[in-house]
Specification:
This protein is of the alpha+beta class. It has a single domain, classed as Mannose-Binding Protein A, Chain A, CATH 3.10.100.10. The chain is built from two helices and nine strands.
Length: about 110
Amino acid sequence: MCWKKWKVALNTCQNNGMEPVPYPASLKDRAILSIRQSAAIFLDMIRTSNGSYVTRSSGVLVPDAVIYGWDDGEPDNGTQNCIGICDPRTLFYDCLCNKMDIYAGVICVYVALP
């Protein structure tokens, strides 16, 4: 699904009983996320006011080691608090949560099987 705002992506997943895909914690996760149709996808991850990163759905702290690389010019460390991954190298980027990103899609996953 392309042409999404982060919140639209979130609602798309939640309206179907799912959440956006979590951050890629392993090499297997990174490989899976590299096989996608969109140039970028939103993750279930946000930057908090103290600069740490947490999962949006549960507030679990994301270990620093998980963020293995930022795209050029990222992060901006300002008002862009929603997180995604982009380009063939599957690097992280931050974006405004309410900004339309014409290149970003969403992959939804079940938190627990229904």
